[in-house]
Amino acid sequence: MSDDMLYECAIIGGGPAGLSAALVLGRARRKTVIFDDDHARNRVTREAHGFLTRDGIQPAELRRLAREEIANYPSVEFHNERIASIERIDETHYELRTAGGKIFRSQKILLAVGLQDEQPNIPDIERFYGTSIFSCPYCDGWELRDQPLAVIADKNVFKIAAEVYTWSRDLIVFTNGEGQLTAEECKKLNAKGIQIIDDMIAGLEGKNGQLESIRLEDGTLIDRTGGFASPLWSHPNQFAAELGCERNEYGGISTDEYGRTSVWNVYAAGDAAHIVPSQLIIAAGTGSAAAIGMNGDLTNEFFD
């Protein structure tokens, strides 16, 4: 099945970056199609924070409101489908094939696919992640302020612990036998009263997503009511690599200030490109900038 329409812009990903881009492109009267398979990175999070005028909103509600606003612009279409492949046809357009076999044609592509997290190898962590254990202190530190917290990490341990200390002085670092702390870093943490535990974690205790204690392999229980873990991340698909997009120093898709990648007519925004720092409002901003880049390039191409 094929859609004979040639869209000007196709957006893959319906998170803050893709939705912001769709809003800008809709207001610019561009023929735009956006694809979203409702598999957002923050789908397990009950509240989203740090987004001006929407602090504390449920992520699903933020997406609903955005779609409602974008529906006012008739040139934007939504498709709740997963894109399975992207193929460059010639110098003029790309073909996007959905998992259901539909084909869409577009001049320009915006990769706003986000990232996917893989939690640390801690038994039971999925039961608490998004409720009392989080990945970003800027997003959720305020809600855990002054509580007895844990930092569970095997990479960037010192950096994460130092950041979390801003929100709580009652802090214990769990390296789970893998922590990469230097002697100097241990000295600095200990000087602030931060305990470091290198024992392996056997499990997490608590009810209804609320952490109560951390159980070590020898059976010792360490009382903690929340904390931060450092997940591994990966790109949810290989579109950027298959299209030949260059990567930046953090492993994200390399772009200029208007979302242009190293591949002509391919743009990127959100966490997939701007991995550090990772926040909703930053993702939305990069989506808006990418849309301006796409619209500006379409305009220049028309007059040239």
TL;DR of this structure?
By secondary structure, the chain is of the alpha/beta class. It has helices at about 15-25, 60-70, 135-140, 155-165, 185-190, 240-245, 280-304, and strands at about 1-10, 30-35, 75-80, 85-90, 95-100, 105-110, 115-120, 135, 150, 170-175, 195, 200-205, 210-215, 220-225, 225-230, 230-235, 265-270.
Tell me what the structure shows.
This protein is of the alpha/beta class and 304 residues long. It contains 7 helices and 17 strands. Strands 1, 2, 3, 4, 5, 6 and 17 form a 7-stranded mixed beta sheet that branches. Strand 12 (201-207) and strand 13 form a beta hairpin. Helix 1 packs parallel to helix 2 and helix 1 packs parallel to helix 7 (280-303). The radius of gyration is 22 Å and the shape is elongated.
Keywords, separated by commas or semicolons:
304 residues, alpha/beta, 5-stranded parallel β-sheet, 7 helices, 17 strands
Secondary-structure topology with pairs:
Blueprint: E1 2-12, H1 16-27, E2 32-35, H2 59-70, E3 76-79, E4 83-88, E5 94-98, E6 103-111, E7 116-118, E8 133-134, H3 137-140, E9 149-152, H4 157-164, E10 171-174, H5 183-191, E11 195-197, E12 201-207, E13 210-216, E14 221-223, E15 226-229, E16 232-234, H6 239-243, E17 266-268, H7 280-303
Helix pairs in contact: 1-2, 1-7
